[in-house]
What does this fold into?
Amino acid sequence: MNEWGIPDWRDPDAYGDFCDWSRNRWKWEFLRRREDLRQEFKEYASQTYQSNLKFREWLDAEHPTHEGGRILRPEDPGFIIFSRILWWEMPNPKIGDQPENAIGWSWTDTSIREFTRETAPAGFLRVDFDLSAPIAPQIENVKKRLVEVQTEESGGKVQKRRHPAKWPEYLRVLDAAEGGASLSEIAKFLKYKAQTEQGARDTLRAAKELRFNF
It folds into this structure.
């Protein structure tokens, strides 16, 4: 495994048995392979841990008879920060096998973000609403505009299609790409696309998209 607890893509057995994974576990496996979430955890883990320690000190002083468990450290399964990217609690991306209470809620839609900056990042379109005017007509107009822009950018309307059978291969493809594998190396283990560089390219693109739109 590498720094982020990702299995060796060259060994398919390293991924273990997927049969008992919940949908939240699958979503977490794709989310924890996002570089922006990894860096966010690095940025906030220490200060979150220190805040948890201070809160426990206050709780012990104010309520000395309470029964408190051990304060989890950042490297412990179940330790969470508040993600400003997901706008939700998030555990350590280095750990895939998290306790259910760390990933067992109904995740927010990770394809939606709110921006206060003037310029939205690549792949997102910022839209301002007039709060003094009726909202419903504005939403309808924005919906039409989003479809127009999406069609221009991608050549067609993006549809969310779930292919659970492909998810194990998607994870392996993501890990292979992160590990520096070439498209020709990735193509050799594909099952659902032609074992060509184009097949590898298409599979990698679909796998990357799933990290942001599970």
